[in-house]
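INFO batch 0412 | record 1 of 1 | parsing
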Amino acid sequence: SISGALALAVLDVYKIRCTKALIAASAVSAEHGATNRILDRIPLKRKAMEISQKAFMLADGSKIGTVALGQIAPITEFAALITDATAPEAEIAAIRTLGVDVHIAE
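INFO prediction complete | emitting tokens
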């Protein structure tokens, strides 16, 4: 596998397009969006969103309502958030208020 600048270059050179991007994050909140603690991974996550028809945020409940170092994107840029039942209900409600579909996996 490849990552970093090489991965970004490959996506550009070959004009790769995707139907769906499944993006993971270190933290997700209504206020700060999807954030990541490892900054050098953010550009590739953003590029994956850019080349995809829809982006979906994947985060377990422990990451909901928290904030990490750098922003990937506002939560409203995702078609949906997929999380689990441990996510704080108040934060899920705040994200839904922004118009983001939230799916609770079992």
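INFO post-check: The longest strand covers residues 18-24.
INFO record closed
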